């Protein structure tokens, strides 16, 4: 049985295989319902819009159906049931489970108690492999994944999507440029680990220093709650905002990605520029998750 | 006064049955006792020598525990803080087994994850699991890394 728990568990061949499958999924299964009669259990113990809805959409498009946990407050978790027991029970009702949970490592634990495949839909500050596969797929629509210069900007201390993407790109010899406010830079342990795996990591003070070298710019939201002083948040966040004036001399094929939701970090005027890929990235959630579901359920 | 040199005696005596943990890094015998759960309230007869000079003229600590043979899990824990230690199993005053300690590649239920948000720090029926990567221990569930003061995380 296959689980998809962490991007660390996937080697380059496995990642390429899923991305290729996502690219061909609409033609491969045109007029077919490969998951007809199968049920996907959606166990979301934290709020989610894109992940939950795109997994549901992917399952329905493959001919299958979905079963929702509902709110945590109406589940047995509210009575004190362990996640392990919940998984044991639900694995008798469904053919695969997508799990989102606030505790890091929850999906790994679930895979140890489940008789059916577990797909990690995000575990606290830990892993969110489907998001990383979507990010890679979106980049691959514009360029080869090999040897790219990628800028990671925003909260790189706590941002799980940037960590996972950086790790995945170690398979593709990426040059990683980081731009983050003081105190929210990439943790040293992760930077060391990326370099051990062969990536080159460069730290920049401001986006202007590197923007014109980049093939991909991956921006994440700065979380207001990380800044005790609201005035300081507004001051700092203005330095981490992408505007059309910043993009005057960038590479023609630059792709700007954002896992969304965004707040102020991308000027809406950028949306209509050819570099903006973030809404395409969100739409790509469906084919990539279709590929993941067929990978573990067929 | 006879003028004779005082007779040399052993720092600590031999034991009839039990375990001798030798070649512990100097000053770390007390950590080994903590790992083994030996406190002032336990009943074992224990001898501890710290900073004794070995044959190789280097300092070491030695712990002797009467009537107790260590389990594999206990030896794994000792390996984390005393990687050069040797474990001698004594029966009837004779060393019947002598072995070094090896840090296993995977430590099950030995370390407590330092990440308070890790699933292993909840009421779930799960044992902590760390993989050794060189001198670092990495949590298999949350990827938290313990790279220094590993003994502080021993359960």
UniProtKB/TrEMBL annotation, chain A:
The keyword Amino-acid biosynthesis does not apply. It catalyses: carbamoyl phosphate + L-aspartate = N-carbamoyl-L-aspartate + phosphate + H(+). Gene3D superfamilies: Aspartate/ornithine carbamoyltransferase. Keywords: Pyrimidine biosynthesis, Transferase. Residues 3-141 form the Aspartate/ornithine carbamoyltransferase carbamoyl-P binding domain. Carbamoyl phosphate binds at residues 50-51, 100, 128, 131, 260-261. It comes from the Archaea. GO terms for molecular function: amino acid binding; aspartate carbamoyltransferase activity. It holds the Pfam family OTCace. Its EC number is 2.1.3.2. PROSITE patterns: CARBAMOYLTRANSFERASE. Catalyzes the condensation of carbamoyl phosphate and aspartate to form carbamoyl aspartate and inorganic phosphate, the committed step in the de novo pyrimidine nucleotide biosynthesis pathway. This is Aspartate carbamoyltransferase. It comes from Methanospirillum stamsii. The lineage of its organism: Archaea, Methanobacteriati, Methanobacteriota, Stenosarchaea group, Methanomicrobia.
TrEMBL record, chain B:
Keywords: Metal-binding, Pyrimidine biosynthesis, Transferase, Zinc. One of its GO terms (cellular component) is aspartate carbamoyltransferase complex. One of its GO terms (biological process) is 'de novo' pyrimidine nucleobase biosynthetic process. The keyword Magnesium does not apply. Residues 108-149 form the Aspartate carbamoyltransferase regulatory subunit C-terminal domain. Residues 11-101 form the Aspartate carbamoyltransferase regulatory subunit N-terminal domain. Binds 1 zinc ion per subunit. Gene3D superfamilies: Aspartate carbamoyltransferase regulatory subunit, C-terminal domain, Aspartate carbamoyltransferase regulatory subunit, N-terminal domain. HAMAP family: Asp_carb_tr_reg. Involved in allosteric regulation of aspartate carbamoyltransferase. PANTHER family: ASPARTATE CARBAMOYLTRANSFERASE REGULATORY CHAIN (PTHR35805). Contains catalytic and regulatory chains. This is Aspartate carbamoyltransferase regulatory chain.
């Amino acid at each position: 049985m296959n689980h998809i728990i962490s991007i660390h568990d996937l080697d380059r061949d496995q990642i390429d295989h899923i991305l290729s499958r996502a690219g061909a999924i609409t033609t491969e299964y045109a007029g077919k319902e490969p998951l007809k009669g199968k049920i996907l259990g959606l166990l979301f113990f934290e709020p989610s819009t894109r992940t939950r809805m795109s997994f549901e959409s992917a399952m329905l498009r493959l001919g299958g159906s979905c079963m929702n946990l509902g709110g945590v407050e109406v589940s047995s978790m509210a009575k004190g049931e362990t996640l392990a027991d919940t998984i044991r029970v639900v694995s008798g009702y469904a053919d695969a489970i997508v799990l989102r949970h606030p505790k890091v490592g929850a999906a790994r634990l679930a895979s140890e108690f489940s008789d059916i495949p577990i797909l990690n839909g995000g575990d606290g500050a830990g892993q969110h492999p489907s998001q990383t596969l979507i990010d890679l797929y979106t980049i691959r629509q514009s360029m080869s994944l090999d040897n790219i210069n990628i800028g990671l900007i925003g909260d790189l201390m706590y941002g799980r999507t940037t960590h996972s993407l950086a790790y995945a790109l170690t398979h593709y010899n990426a040059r990683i440029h980081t731009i983050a406010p003081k105190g929210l830079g990439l943790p040293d342990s992760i930077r060391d680990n990326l370099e051990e795996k062969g990536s080159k990591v460069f730290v920049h003070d401001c986006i202007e220093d590197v923007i014109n070298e980049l093939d991909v710019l991956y921006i994440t939201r700065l979380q207001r709650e990380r800044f005790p002083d609201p005035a300081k948040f507004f001051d700092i966040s203005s330095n981490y905002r992408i505007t059309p004036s910043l993009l005057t001399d960038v590479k023609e094929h630059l792709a700007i990605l954002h896992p969304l939701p965004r707040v102020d970090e991308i000027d809406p005027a950028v949306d209509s520029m050819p570099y903006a890929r973030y809404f395409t990235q969100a739409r790509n959630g469906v084919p990539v998750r279709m590929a993941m579901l067929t990978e573990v359920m067929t | 006064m006879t003028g004779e040199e005082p007779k040399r005696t052993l720092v600590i005596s031999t034991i009839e049955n039990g375990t001798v943990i030798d070649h512990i890094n100097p000053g770390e015998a007390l950590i080994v006792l903590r790992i083994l759960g030996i406190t002032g309230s336990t009943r074992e007869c224990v001898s501890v020598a710290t900073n004794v000079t070995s044959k190789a003229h280097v300092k070491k600590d030695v712990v002797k525990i009467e009537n107790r043979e260590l389990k594999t899990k206990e030896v794994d824990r000792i390996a984390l803080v005393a990687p050069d230690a040797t474990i001698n199993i004594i029966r009837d005053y004779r060393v019947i087994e002598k072995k070094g300690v090896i840090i296993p590649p995977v430590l099950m239920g030995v370390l407590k994850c330092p990440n308070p948000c890790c699933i292993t720090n909840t009421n779930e029926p799960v044992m902590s699991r760390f993989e050794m990567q060189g001198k670092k221990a990495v949590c298999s569930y949350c990827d938290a890394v313990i790279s220094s003061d590993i003994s502080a995380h021993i359960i």
